[in-house]
């Protein structure tokens, strides 16, 4: 009997290689290869040249057309379409093709040709099978929908994210998905842009089977032989084939869309609802309308700005590559920020110890983490494993084993330095010390620290699970290795690192402070807080400055304002006495259940109805001081360039994405117009509106 070695055991347990069909003498193309096995099943393996991910460009689609012609003449009894890329099937259209598009007519011509190619796939007279692993998004899912069968590998994720680009599916998804599954579920997928995992896709009828890799070949043969059990169609498809039923559902969909995406700012959801309401059940009519609607949307300013946002995200992500060497994170401070940072890290596979002087605070943080995992992690095993990795550390012993120590205590320099003094001697020689300070310069915090080269700022934003950005704060003694590891750490936990220079408030909080401060001035002038918030929301902000101040925490906001007033010469209004009183009385905002607003038991602010509409000047009073400070930060070198600034402000504050970022908005509106408006506001309201001299470099006269 042979001896089983440890190595052979691991080889046996390792994931099976991907099934990519017969390997003998395949017909090779630029972006794919085609082969036919002894069972007469053809395999089309997609492998876009010089790219890590399969995306659909015009060249890729043209090649698909050529390949389909070959398939029609090769006598195959079935066709399998599969990706050779490890990451997934197809990630959608090549977004680079969308950039700078201005002519809807040109787009429509290109889209009609693309539809002809996908229709050719759908019309093949032999069984077609899409084998899907990893991501299958947008145009990739539309290719899969054109196949007669879809087999998903466990762990696959499918979805239509186009709505996030100001678009809706444009390659047949609108009519093929609503015909295949419950139309309301189909519309929900497209309207939200959310992905569904393989098992949910099977329950919806979007895929016909979910298998492990080793069963792919058998599943393919069953599908080609017509022996795969499918769960196609349902009674709802018949009901929503009737116009009155669609009209009723469409009204509800529009009402829901208005809560998240106002029509005047984001037209795509409403165009999609119109498509389905008017043409649902008539595939040809819906296809024609889809092409026209998609083309018009793609050429719109909203979509082009959201495409810009996509590339801003990609730019930030590009700095988050590499290996951090961080496996164990020790978090000190288990309040809202510290506890949520710890929970997030543990959910991404890191071992986390969470310390706090208050044992009850640790218990509450673990409880919040459990609730978060219940909502966000798909399986019980994933939830269990995440909680196992998140360990309460009552004696602080985890600091000696951690690769990264994150301090998230009160926003006071003396408190943070005291923490540093206590932990620095216990840390490993190569461990990084990070502070989650939101405003204190690292030059202040590093005083007395024996290893300033390993100190970095990692400023997360609240709520941690939703705000993607992390400011990576550099100072002149931080080593390149420390900064590179910090960027890579952000990538490992799926966060976007923004490089900023150490200075009071860094970038985001410094830019937000005049926005919030002006809202407080308006409050003192007697403007209802609901009206102030509405002015910002009308501009496109996800929430108004009053609600945002409560979300951040009035105590944290007060410390930031004090720091900026003490350390900077930026003109600013006085700190309101009522703000200090609220903090003293622990009315610190949403986390306390009361701040500028009172909150219900679900954490939603109680807003008074029927408050006056905002005046025409109000959004400028709020937003332009923010833009003015952004220009000042650029001039001072706090952030490297306009794109980095725009990305940081969008992903940390939700700055109106459809406007493309504060600097892009300034250039689109016109630098001269903004400077003139600031001058008018200065004359009316005081020197805090004086245009920064940095506008001159952008083409404005100050």
From TrEMBL:
Residues 599-609 have a biased composition (Basic and acidic residues). Residues 594-620 are annotated as: Disordered. InterPro entries: 3-OHacyl-CoA_DH_CS, 3-OHacyl-CoA_DH_NAD-bd, 3HC_DH_C, 6-PGluconate_DH-like_C_sf, ClpP/crotonase-like_dom_sf, Enoyl-CoA_hydra/iso, FA_oxidation_alpha_subunit, NAD(P)-bd_dom_sf. GO terms for molecular function: enoyl-CoA hydratase activity; long-chain (3S)-3-hydroxyacyl-CoA dehydrogenase (NAD+) activity; NAD+ binding. It is an enzyme of class 4 (lyase). It catalyses: a (3S)-3-hydroxyacyl-CoA + NAD(+) = a 3-oxoacyl-CoA + NADH + H(+). Its EC number is 4.2.1.17. Residues 328-501 form the 3-hydroxyacyl-CoA dehydrogenase NAD binding domain. CDD domains: crotonase-like (cd06558). Keywords: Fatty acid metabolism, Lipid degradation, Lipid metabolism, Lyase, Multifunctional enzyme, NAD, Oxidoreductase. The keyword Translocase does not apply. Residues 505-599 form the 3-hydroxyacyl-CoA dehydrogenase C-terminal domain. It comes from Mesorhizobium alhagi CCNWXJ12-2. Pathway: Lipid metabolism; fatty acid beta-oxidation. In the central section; belongs to the 3-hydroxyacyl-CoA dehydrogenase family. It comes from the Bacteria. This is enoyl-CoA hydratase. The lineage of its organism: Bacteria, Pseudomonadati, Pseudomonadota, Alphaproteobacteria, Hyphomicrobiales. Gene3D superfamilies: 1.10.1040.50, 2-enoyl-CoA Hydratase, Chain A, domain 1 (3.90.226.10), NAD(P)-binding Rossmann-like Domain (3.40.50.720). One of its GO terms (biological process) is fatty acid beta-oxidation. PANTHER family: TRIFUNCTIONAL ENZYME SUBUNIT ALPHA, TRIFUNCTIONAL ENZYME SUBUNIT ALPHA, MITOCHONDRIAL.
């Amino acid at each position: 009997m042979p001896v089983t070695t440890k190595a052979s055991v691991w080889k046996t347990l390792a994931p099976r290689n991907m099934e990519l069909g017969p390997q003998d003498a395949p017909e090779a193309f630029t972006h794919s290869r085609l082969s036919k096995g002894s069972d007469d099943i053809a395999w089309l393996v997609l492998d876009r040249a010089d790219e890590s991910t399969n995306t659909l460009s015009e060249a890729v689609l043209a090649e698909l057309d050529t390949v389909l012609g070959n398939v029609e003449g090769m006598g195959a009894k079935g066709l399998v379409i599969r990706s050779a890329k490890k990451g997934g099937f197809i990630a959608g259209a090549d977004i680079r093709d969308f950039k700078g598009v201005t002519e809807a007519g040109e787009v429509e011509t290109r889209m009609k040709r693309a539809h002809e190619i996908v229709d050719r796939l759908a019309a093949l007279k032999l069984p077609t099978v899409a084998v899907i692993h990893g991501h299958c998004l947008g145009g990739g899912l539309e290719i899969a929908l054109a196949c007669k069968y879809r087999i998903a590998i466990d762990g696959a994720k499918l979805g239509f994210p186009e709505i996030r680009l100001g678009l809706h599916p444009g390659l047949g998804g609108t009519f093929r998905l609503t015909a295949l599954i419950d139309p309301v579920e189909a519309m929900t997928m497209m309207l939200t842009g959310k992905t569904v995992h393989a098992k949910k896709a099977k329950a919806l009828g979007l895929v016909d089977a979910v298998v492990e890799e080793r069963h792919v070949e058998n599943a393919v043969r069953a599908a080609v032989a017509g022996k795969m059990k499918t769960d196609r169609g349902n009674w709802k498809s018949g009901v929503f084939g009737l116009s009155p039923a669609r009209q009723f559902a469409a009204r509800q969909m529009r009402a829901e869309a208005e809560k998240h995406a106002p029509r005047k700012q984001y037209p795509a959801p409403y165009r999609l609802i119109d498509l389905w309401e008017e043409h649902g059940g008539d595939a040809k009519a819906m296809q024609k309308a889809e092409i026209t609607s998609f083309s018009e949307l793609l050429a719109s300013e909203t979509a082009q700005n959201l495409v810009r946002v996509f590339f801003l995200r990609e730019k930030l992500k590009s700095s988050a590559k590499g290996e951090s060497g961080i496996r164990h994170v020790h978090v000190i401070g288990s309040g809202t920020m510290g506890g949520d940072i710890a929970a997030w890290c543990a959910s991404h596979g890191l071992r986390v110890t969470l310390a706090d002087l208050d044992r009850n605070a640790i218990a509450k943080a673990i409880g919040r983490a459990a609730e978060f995992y219940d909502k966000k992690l798909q399986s019980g095993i994933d939830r269990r494993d995440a909680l196992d990795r998140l360990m309460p550390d009552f004696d602080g012993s985890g600091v000696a084993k951690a690769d990264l120590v994150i301090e998230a205590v009160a926003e006071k320099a003396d408190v943070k330095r005291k923490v540093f003094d206590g932990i620095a001697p216990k840390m490993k020689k190569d461990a990084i010390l990070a502070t989650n300070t939101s405003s204190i310069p690292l030059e202040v915090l590093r005083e007395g620290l024996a290893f300033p080269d390993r100190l970095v700022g990692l400023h997360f934003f609240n709520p941690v699970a939703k705000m993607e950005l992390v400011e990576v704060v550099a100072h002149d003694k931080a080593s390149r290795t420390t900064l590179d590891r910090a960027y890579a750490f952000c990538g490992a936990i799926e966060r976007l690192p923004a490089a900023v220079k150490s200075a009071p408030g860094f970038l985001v909080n410094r830019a937000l402070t005049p926005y919030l401060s002006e809202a407080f001035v308006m409050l003192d002038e007697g403007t209802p807080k609901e009206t102030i918030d509405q002015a910002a929301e009308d501009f496109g902000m996800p929430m108004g400055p009053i609600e945002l101040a409560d979300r951040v925490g009035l105590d944290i906001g007060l410390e930031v304002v004090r720091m900026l007033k003490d350390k900077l010469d930026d003109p600013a209004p006085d700190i309101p006495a009522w703000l200090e009183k609220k903090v003293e009385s622990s009315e610190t905002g949403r986390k306390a259940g009361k701040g500028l607003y009172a909150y219900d038991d679900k954490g939603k602010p109680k807003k008074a109805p029927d408050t006056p509409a905002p005046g025409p000047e109000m959004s400028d009073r709020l937003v332009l001081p923010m833009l003015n400070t952004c220009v000042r930060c650029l001039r001072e070198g706090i952030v490297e360039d306009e794109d980095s600034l725009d990305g940081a402000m969008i992903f940390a504050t939700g700055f109106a994405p459809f406007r493309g970022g504060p600097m892009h908005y300034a250039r689109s509106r016109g630098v001269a117009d903004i400077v003139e408006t600031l001058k008018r506001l200065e004359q009316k309201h005081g020197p805090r509106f004086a245009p920064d001299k940095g506008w001159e470099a952008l083409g404005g006269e100050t």
